[in-house]
Amino acid sequence: MESLAGESVVVIGAGVGGLSTACYLADAGADVRVIEKNEQLGGRASRLERDGFRFDMGPSWYLMPDVFERFFAEFDRTPTDYYDLTHLDPHYRIFFKDGDRVDVTADIDRTKALFEEYEEGAGEALERYLEKSKENYEVGMEHFVYEDRSRLRDYLDLDVARQARGLSLLGSMQGHVEKYFDHPKLQQIMQYTLVFLGGSPKNTPALYNLMSHVDFNLGVWYPENGLGGVIDGIVDLGRELGVEYDTDRPATAIKGREGAFLVETPDGPLRPDLVVSNADYAHTEQELLPPERRGYDADYWESRTYAPSAFLLYLGVEGDVEDLEHHTLVLPTDWEEHFDQIFEDPQWPGDPAYYLCVPSKTDDSVAPEGHSNLFVLVPIAPGLDDTPERRQEYRDLILEDIAANTGTDLRDRIVVEETFCVEDFADRYNSFKGTALGMAHTLRQTSLFRPPHRSKAVEGLYFTGSYTTPGIGVPMCLISGELTAEKVIEDYGRPKPTDNVQ
């Protein structure tokens, strides 16, 4: 690898993409400093601690373990150098609001039998579906995720065409799933992972059926100390490589250019050679850069389709929650209305689909003895009116819905309670319209149609994180860090000096 020795880099924002980029750049020899506006590192993967309870504030699913293994292997480490993993079984439980309940387990034969109960032939259909999903995953990851094809000419290549042959590139997830399953509940089981991509069955490309390989074949895991433990591991790796971190230090402006940047902060300016922004892409361009140095105007950002925001309840509860699993989904029998109320006619969902996480089922350290730790996540449209009165009303609706549909009444047992919603995402993370994830993975916002890693207007300024390729999610942001670092090294790396041979 070429060397960045002598180059100084400031990374703005300590989300997963920023932390990943910092590791790669430091490993290449750069002098790297990460600045973070909040009090802790991790971005949306922050922790909330109250009265003996410890909550992962954002991501809570450890998926795609191969991506984490590859990331640490780049630095001659393994994930187990930093945290242990527990394979969850069942992977998750689903409560349908008609009283039905299913567990999706690590045993694929049991899952095939479960599908067969709903629809004759669905077990074999699942096997075919997962074969296609595995093919899409293996080809897609190797040739279209780890290789950043950010320009149209990158696709006008015979080798690319050969690799893409057979991939489910066009069409929607809804249409793809309907080719295999008629029963609406089976369709929902195959589509729930779209929540991790910030899309709906109608607007997410069929290519993302690869997420079913992630779910059914690669498994669902719990890292020691939660996703916060993974962040600790990445931060520790960065320190070992020489990265320096400043918390409570927001960037307020980016001035200058390659070799002579000025990053303004309340604690004084920083003067790096290069800048990488892991802050919200729209915030960086609209708030940190002057108009003449922006790659996109305000109309561009307004015209994008954004992933949902979320209504979150962090709850510390007395006693057990026996009917809930570590990961639990509660789904209406027809969830189309909920997606329409996110993407088509934004409003607070009246009959919501939502997710419950109970890490205390697996990890005793996240709650005091005799208590349960759980949080509730309801996907909602970004930009909704988020008032204290609306939160209280929705909190009551959700707790009543949990009691009615899971048999778990939490209302008289809550000892710790915090909410997080649209305004909090906007305030804490400078998130455009309070989206929880960034730009959705629609067909027109996938691959080369996402904003680039290199600034379109400022030489020496780069972007990383969920707005760039490959997109949304912790594994994708880890890979985004690698892709961003590759661009920096390609532009500014120099051959490593070698000893003269006499």
Automatic annotation (TrEMBL):
Q: Which Pfam families match?
A: Amino_oxidase (PF01593)
Q: Does the keyword Cell wall biogenesis/degradation apply?
A: no
Pathway the protein contributes to: Carotenoid biosynthesis
The UniProt keywords, alphabetically, are:
Carotenoid biosynthesis, Oxidoreductase
**In its UniProt record, which GO terms are filed under biological process?**
carotenoid biosynthetic process
Q: Name one GO molecular function term.
A: oxidoreductase activity
- Cited InterPro entries: Amino_oxidase (IPR002937), Carotenoid/retinoid_OxRdtase (IPR014105), FAD/NAD-bd_sf (IPR036188)
Where is each Amine oxidase domain found?
A: 17-489
PANTHER family found in the cross-reference section:
PHYTOENE DESATURASE
Name this protein carries in UniProt: Phytoene desaturase family protein
- The protein's organism comes out as Halosolutus amylolyticus
